[in-house]
Amino acid sequence: MDATRTLPDPEVGRLLVSCEDGPGIVAAISGFLHARGANIVQSDQQTTDPVGGRFFLRIVFRMPELPQWLPALEEEFAAEVAERFAMSFRMRAASVPTRVALFVSRYDHCLLDLLWRWRRGELLVDVVQVVSNHPDLQKEVASFDVPYAHIPVTRDTKPEAERQQAELLEGRVDLVVLARYMQVLTGGFLERIGVPAINIHHSFLPAFAGAGPYEQAKTRGVKLVGATAHYVTEDLDEGPIIEQDVARVSHRDRVADITRRGADVERNVLARAVTWHCEDRVLLDGHSTIVF
Amino acid sequence: MDATRTLPDPEVGRLLVSCEDGPGIVAAISGFLHARGANIVQSDQQTTDPVGGRFFLRIVFRMPELPQWLPALEEEFAAEVAERFAMSFRMRAASVPTRVALFVSRYDHCLLDLLWRWRRGELLVDVVQVVSNHPDLQKEVASFDVPYAHIPVTRDTKPEAERQQAELLEGRVDLVVLARYMQVLTGGFLERIGVPAINIHHSFLPAFAGAGPYEQAKTRGVKLVGATAHYVTEDLDEGPIIEQDVARVSHRDRVADITRRGADVERNVLARAVTWHCEDRVLLDGHSTIVF
Amino acid sequence: MDATRTLPDPEVGRLLVSCEDGPGIVAAISGFLHARGANIVQSDQQTTDPVGGRFFLRIVFRMPELPQWLPALEEEFAAEVAERFAMSFRMRAASVPTRVALFVSRYDHCLLDLLWRWRRGELLVDVVQVVSNHPDLQKEVASFDVPYAHIPVTRDTKPEAERQQAELLEGRVDLVVLARYMQVLTGGFLERIGVPAINIHHSFLPAFAGAGPYEQAKTRGVKLVGATAHYVTEDLDEGPIIEQDVARVSHRDRVADITRRGADVERNVLARAVTWHCEDRVLLDGHSTIVF
Amino acid sequence: MDATRTLPDPEVGRLLVSCEDGPGIVAAISGFLHARGANIVQSDQQTTDPVGGRFFLRIVFRMPELPQWLPALEEEFAAEVAERFAMSFRMRAASVPTRVALFVSRYDHCLLDLLWRWRRGELLVDVVQVVSNHPDLQKEVASFDVPYAHIPVTRDTKPEAERQQAELLEGRVDLVVLARYMQVLTGGFLERIGVPAINIHHSFLPAFAGAGPYEQAKTRGVKLVGATAHYVTEDLDEGPIIEQDVARVSHRDRVADITRRGADVERNVLARAVTWHCEDRVLLDGHSTIVF
Question: Which residues form the active site (chains A, B, C, D) (predicted)?
Fold first, then answer.
């Protein structure tokens, strides 16, 4: 049972905008929505610099019979507002789940946490596929009624493996989540898939980038370990950061303890990042993110 | 020296609005500002309930020669926008410091932290007066060049003391901050002063309301102690909460240790609450607050 | 797979002691252990007051062939040391799992988190039984190969239900964990079971004791919500606190959001409390706890 | 006034021990103390590895007329216990303040926080000297009745400046604290002074080591910024870490805001590190620390 489940309201829509700042943008957008009977429920706007900065906006609006009007609304917004201000924008119904593929290797904590949040209705997604380079978590995933594709990856088979992965997912997903997937995705794969990918890195980036961060943390004697969720780019560990958090460790903790402590942070940070992404809260600002 | 001091931009203004929700409010406001050449730099809007809720908005805008236009802008906004939607609103130049009176008894940590943040330019206020029922902190306050009014308060002299306090402050301050002032302000005093008052309560309200919260915390064996900054109302410890935070304590901590640990939380929480109030981030929503 | 699993060392033992403070206690205990070839690996000692306080000690020691010597060691310690200082003590092999019964109603988050930590080897317990007053989580629990006893409880059937529960568990468990079990256990039941019980309360006690804490938190407009793990006593919500934590909430969060946020804190706090209890880190000091 | 001040008990002593682990160490130490009428009030012991690890111990004890017996006690301990186990140890009266020199450049927040904690009796130190390469904070420091040595440092005058500093401090201090002192101390200086030095680094080391960490944090778009207190070694930013903490930042924060946020973390982290050092809670374990 889940007492906290609340059905998403089908008449609620979300609009995300980014463009060069200039006068009249909010007035144009809000005027556009008002003229079509849409009521703004929540909005956040940020200009990175009062002079010559970039403009970022997230609007949650409510509009009677949104589902049937949405395509026209989007088209009209493009023509009447977006073009004029050279905007990038995204408009969609808040009630439509984001279609997600979860990639995992052998650690189950991030994967299970996302699956569990999804099942209890906390995360508005459709998990359409789990992809793994190992067979270990097959049974676990089956209990959530999600298909599990075991696609082994070696140095030699990587191109072929990525081809299989891409074929499996192309057009079926809006987001790829690397829930402790220990393989690097190539730029070619990301381009072909054409949807964003979120990775959880088990360190407080940029500290301890690379392999074995918890071992590094122990060696260096740090008092906090962290995790970082970021968009995947071709530059390993360098993509725009969405969320980070830390946990306290002490001299008493061995690497195994630190790893466990870190696992708790990883699953929380990744869950927050995925939730925010699916709620359209994250906008890209060059190499960093705006999180509304 | 303070490398972080940045002079406030005199052309930046802030507008706060609350009213019953309804269609077209954002469009009306942003249209109004756009028509006068004001550019919205940042905005946050929240409607408490999509149906029949209340509307809250904070806008930071930039307008050439704001200081000279502000009075007219305010008047026109009242006539053209606010009346139509039955709004409460506040409009002011972001560069004008909030005039503050600090009340204190004998604990110095909250007072000194605010004075120090003010001196280093972190807090855009004018501390016009310190009021205390004890003489202890006189010398300390003098080093900040702030007048110190020592007005003793006993049960018998309270009405007379409050009369003196009111006379001293009336029309001179925009905010009263109780920085560990151990006397209760009467409703009559608050009404006469006519400006908001913020208090720091040394517990995680509503737990341990009343006297000796750290002693209570020790007795109950809690693992975290907290502090709460809230607006002062006639109902002691019941005013709308602005900010709260906690610190970890353990069985090793005696009441004195907990009190010290708590003092660190108190000064941080109060500083955040005062900063947010002075940046017009806090709006009242019945008995609670919206903090943008 | 679980890379963090480390097999418990069968030669490691733990000794917990509490008594009136007095001279020579540590010397007597460490002399006793040394004489039997036991090496102290870790120890924590705390006297609540240098004069007339109580003495608390936790020692982790390593002793060749501990399993075969433990019964004799315990007996000799009782005769040679404990009696002399009127100690309460507990001595046991660190490698022996604590036998646990998990009670749950319908919320799954605390239950699943404990089962998952157990399965991945993070929690050294044997979950011997799940008891619920509802059938909802039966299938979920079955996937962990743990027996599920569905024992409905109404006001009228409570005595009979508790009799069934006690019969089921008597002599089979070392610890009862109430993982969001929405029924109050009677003093009679606790006495009959004769083992400690840990409960997770979904508020930052003593704030918001009683029903609907997250609704209360929303109404009061608090900025943090918390959870409290405590030993169960006959006085509801008044037992010794083991662990607490909080999460930040804002005006944007509805009761459902706060409840979800709270659920994350609940499962973390309960997992820590159970872990610490099973690692013999928690000692009772009247109504509060020492957590080494 | 400071209600939390508690006079240190002159009969309380502290003993710190580190050595190779082996059987009978705790028994030998506690037997030694017991035989001399010292009662152990608190103790923490940790062996880094059950087999072949290092042994670390901190004991707080109470002994009648400690001040007059301490020199003999120390000598006997060296002869009877320390030598046998090849121990490093430190024994001292808990009531004797640590003599401290504070080094600062121009940022006042860490310096003032330490001075203020000292004045209110929170920090058991004697601040015997402030040393600065700038004159800016002279007046501020004077109000605490602490001598202020203004010793400018340029690339050319550095050897001479360090000679002056060393002459000023040699034999007068037990600890040097770099409270945002922007000059690197040479190994020669540290050796000549012969006491430990604690530095506060304004980043979450090892991330953003080097100059301008908050600028780096902004550029990289991190969601948390941190501070690190560590012992100073010849390898810049590489000394053993004593304490770390973080604060949350967002896309809204400019570098100036991040710097302020960071300053709050810096002063807290440094105050904790200095407090723990002065309470003899920190032991060195190679390149990392044990903090009891």
Answer: 237
The residues in B 118-157 lying below 8 A from A, measured between CB atoms, are none
Minimal CA separation from C245 to chain D, in Å: 17
Q: Is A23 on the interface with B (CB under 8 A)?
A: yes
- pLDDT tens per residue, range B224-267: 999 999 999 988 888 999 999 999 999 999 999 999 999 999 99
- Cβ within 8 Å of A, C 249-268: 252, 254, 256, 259-260, 263-264, 268
* pLDDT-based confidence at residue B6 (cuts at 50, 70, 90): low
Chain D within 8 Å of B3 (Cβ-Cβ)? yes
Chains in touch with D (≥3 Cβ pairs < 8 A)? A, B, C
Does some domain include residue C207?
yes
Q: What is the pLDDT of residues A89-105, one digit of tens each?
A: 999 999 999 999 999 99
ipTM over 0.90: yes
Classify burial at A210, counting beta carbons within 10 Å of its beta carbon; exposed 0-12, middle 13-18, buried 19 or more. Answer: exposed
Instruction: Supply angle C-alpha B92, B96, B101, rounded to 5.
Output: 110
pLDDT (0 to 100) of residue B1 = 39
Mutate to test the interface with B, among D1, D2, D4, D7 (most CBs of B within 10 A): D4
Per-residue pLDDT at C51: 79
Alpha-carbon gap, residue B282 to A121, rounded angstroms: 32
Considering B237, B245, B253, B264, which one is annotated as catalytic? Answer: B237
Task: Please count the structural domains in chain B.
Answer: 2
Do B127 and B213 reside in the same domain of the chain?
yes
Residue D3 lies in a domain: no
The pLDDT > 70 percentage for chain C reads 98
Indicate if the pLDDT at residue C6 is higher than 80: no
D209 and D66 inside one domain = no
Position D272: which residue type?
R
Instruction: Quote the minimal CA–CA distance from B161 to chain A in Å.
Output: 46
Q: Is B232 on the interface with C (CB under 8 A)?
A: no
Do C38 and C165 fall within a single domain?
A: no
Q: Tell me which residue range forms the domain holding C264.
A: 98-291
Closest CA relative to residue A263, chosen from A219, A213, A221: A213
Tell me how far apart the alpha carbons of residues A33 and C286 are, in angstroms, rounded to a whole number: 63
Cα torsion A180, A186, A192, A196: sign: positive
> Domain of B219: which CATH number?
3.40.50.170
